[in-house]
Amino acid sequence: MNKAFKIIYAALFFGVCAAPLITMPFASSNEQIEKRELAKAPKIIEDGSLNTSFSEQAEAWYNDRLPFRATLLEGAGRIKSEVFGAPTANVISGKDGWLFFEGSAKDYIDSNAMSSHRLECTAVTLSLIEENVREKGGKFLFVPMPNKAEVYDEYMPANYIKADENNYSRLLERLNAYGVSVLDMKQVMRDNKDNGIYHKRDTHWNYLGALIGYNAIMDGLSHPHKTYDNVSYSVTNDWQGDLEKLLYPNDPGYDEQYRFDIEYDEFRFTMPPAASDTKASLELFMSDKEQGDTRIRTQKLKPTGAGSLYMIRDSFGRALLPFMIDNYDTAFFERRTVPNMNSLPAGGDLVYEIVERNLANITTSAPNMKAPLREISDYTGDYAADGNRAFIKEESAGVFIYGTLDDNFASDDARVYIQLTGSGVEKTYEAFPIAEQMLLDGQGLEDTEYGFSAHIDTSDLADGDYEIHIISNKMKSVTLETLTIKGE
Questions:
Q1: Separation of alpha carbons 58 and 401, rounded Å
Q2: Facing residues of 420 across strands?
Q3: CA-to-CA dists, residue 73 to 64, 81, 83, angstroms
Q4: Is the pTM of this model over 0.70?
Q5: Percent of the chain predicted with pLDDT > 90
């Protein structure tokens, strides 16, 4: 009896161990379920030598292809989220079936507060962008999109204590002080929250929320537009929320979505080139698939004199597409963090939309924009600071000058200027108060939030050598670098 038990036990043990390998050919693809590229099969010989990471790569390859992996993870996720209420797969399970993105909790409890200098830099950066737009004859509007938890905070778990202020409120205060055109979309959404304008199981607003947001944006631009008042609609239960799919990748449920009966003006996509089927392409760009929507251009078949739009957007902006397209003759949507001002046509409007949790990203890299000329005279000269560094990067239309500032040299109002002196001239440009950390890393410098960057057009500068000085906080640096301009 004892021997028979051992045989059965051993058979069961080895059967369980072998089950994943036996069932692997018949299991669903984890790549399709998890929507990501799985670990590649390892090679014993790699780049002509023995692969010392073979065991780790083999383990990663096998783990990614473990049969029923998604089902097992989903089961564990259900227990953690529904039984214990713990964040799972970057998802917070709230009250009454509401889901929230865990990354937005930092704004909710204000644990990711930007420094006062970073806030000032962000406000200055946006003011310089608006100045450029207005010089080209267009209008500018900054649209920070609120995290869902900030609008429907009553459904957040009780163990998350909402802060009285956060990056959104502090930045809004600074932008108003600088006179930057900004839409308080958080207030707009809160004023309309009783209409059910965010998905319960998705990070984003639904199409009704987008319609309300669109009207607020167009009012903020003072741009004539259709309001789509009293338009008929239906409510369908066919939207698979991104949070739902993160939490239950193998068997996601459905959320409600508003479907409007709107006759839009005829238009065509001029970018991407494959978007020849207008209706199908628009539905794809508005869906959660997020395919081919990095750069989208549209043009009305019968222009109405409605002008041009350049819109910087993230995933929230996809629901705005049909409304914005319908109210401009031409529109260009780019899914990126900072604008490329060369893409803004003369007289075109710029809408800069970014979700609340990403506000700090605005000052990670300078917009592609010519630095404006300034007249600066109230400063002292020849100030040596150990932390002041300048670097030059050649560009097709000039140079990109970037660097770091000594903490004591940086100005409280974050204004910083680059002065070029040489060939009998002196020109001063206002730089973005942005430390280009990716470029600075290449120079072997540590992380800092005190820096500057500017795209400078050198076409009107004579050949010769130019000393580079930095002016900040009424102090002028000693010569940091020399820029040499040579004619072709």
A1: 45
A2: 427, 468
A3: 12, 12, 15
A4: yes
A5: 74
